[in-house]
Amino acid sequence: MPLPIYKHPNEGEEEMKKGWVRHEKLCSQLEACSLDLKQNEAQMTILTATGGELKEKHKKIRGLLEEAKANGIQSAQ
Length: 77
Fold this sequence. Notes:
The chain is mostly helical. Helices cover about 85% and strands about 0% of the residues. It has one domain. It has one helix spanning about 15-75. It comes from Caenorhabditis tropicalis. This is PH domain-containing protein.
């Protein structure tokens, strides 16, 4: 989009002010989005680690239950 040519020095001042306000709003939105992304990444890291720990615990519990079941069957015989 080409910039308009103004004949008087203060003629484009309002447009410049509006542009600056819009620029500030966009920068603020970008900063907020960036912070949200960083928080989401941190949460995903925590959830991934927790998920791995839960899988390991589940595996151990299943092993213990299968062992207990096998021992129960052997004791009954």
